[in-house]
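re: ur question from earlier - yeah i can do the single chain one, its not a big deal. heres the input i used so u can compare w yours
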Amino acid sequence: MIHESSYWKNDLLKRANRLALRLIQTRWGEKNFYTIEKEIFICFYSIRELI
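and the output i got, formated as tokens:
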């Protein structure tokens, strides 16, 4: 159980901003797909924990 959610929310906001920057990216490689997949999974886990 999370008692202080501000740490989770701040981290989630930082990750969301990093994902938003990926929208303007033009070159995609295998490592980029790995990174974006990892970020999305961590974001969804954070949301699940906050709920």
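DSSP finds two helices and no strands in the chain. not sure if urs matches, ping me
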